[in-house]
Amino acid sequence: MADMWIEDIWDKINEKLSRTAIEKRGTLPYTTDNKGRYDDKFRSDVCWWTNGFWPGMMWLMYASTKNEEYRFTAENAEKLLDRAFEQYEGLHHDVGFMWHLSAGADYRITGSRDSYVRNMYAANILAGRYNIKGGYIRAWNGKEQKGYAIIDCMMNIPLLYWASEATGDDRYRYIATSHADKTIKNHIREDGSVHHIVNYDPTTGDIVETKQGQGYAVGSSWSRGQSWGLYGFVLSYLHTNETRYLNAAKRIANYFIAACCDDYLPKSDFRSPTAPVLYDASAGLIAASGLIELSRVVSENEKAMYYEAALRFIKTISDNFADWSDETDAIITHCSESYNSQRHCTLIYADYFLVEAINKLKNINTFMW
Ligand code: GLY
Question: Per the confidence metrics, is the pTM higher than 0.85?
């Protein structure tokens, strides 16, 4: 039995999501409007990078409740995503987020052959974005963005590890480790913070510049990017057993915890002016889920440090930024899409990582990555 506060949060999550799972079936929610109701990216932008989190969250809830309504909604969302394959040109490196959490989860939980095929299509799209001269996976499609590699991609490459594990073909894993090694070298700074965007010369793989991305400024420290790096390197370690990835995850984790230790409510950027105070709760929940995973693989004497930090993030963020009302659809408030836009909104992946982390604390270990 988990601690009372964990059970309490889980009950409230189930109460809210068992309603939205039915009301929002047939849509792909991302954020909420000024009445607190979900939007629908299926109708407005089916290739949107977050479209796997809704079905992923439904699979997590199905794993912990066996309530078929969750499964129906997850399966429905996975089928909606087929339209994104048809649009093809709109796709990007976030095919990992989109399919590994939808079709990939379905395959792992039910063994569905259709889901396996969808996830393999996605893996091949991601592998096709690898720049063989540069040694990195290209993030986005803009003409000027051939050399862009972003820290977030560390959360997409588990799709490639999975593809190698599922097929026995190591090519996917070679691409994933090449990208991860390049990210250690060029994204992680000496102090454990990370750049959001590194722009490479696509013909040589040499760095041209680092860019601002969703943070406050060039050289600042966008908190969600730090958490993508933290969790992403834990995942690379779990898939490869390579200590260099574990050490990279620890470096970023130590930096992240130090940057939040005043109140465990992550600011949107750790190197921004003190006013206005801008939070990004999603960063704390991504980090928390990664920290729980990290605490399971470090040495005995390090475990408590990471596990206790994860508990603090989850409890403090839930105490301060959770909306349990029946009148609204999303749970976690005070997320920021970027430092400069969509501040203090709801974002589907904050709720996803809350559910993922709470499942882990309750020992419902549905490995999603
Ligand atoms: N992957 C984009 C973001 O974190 O906003």
Answer: yes
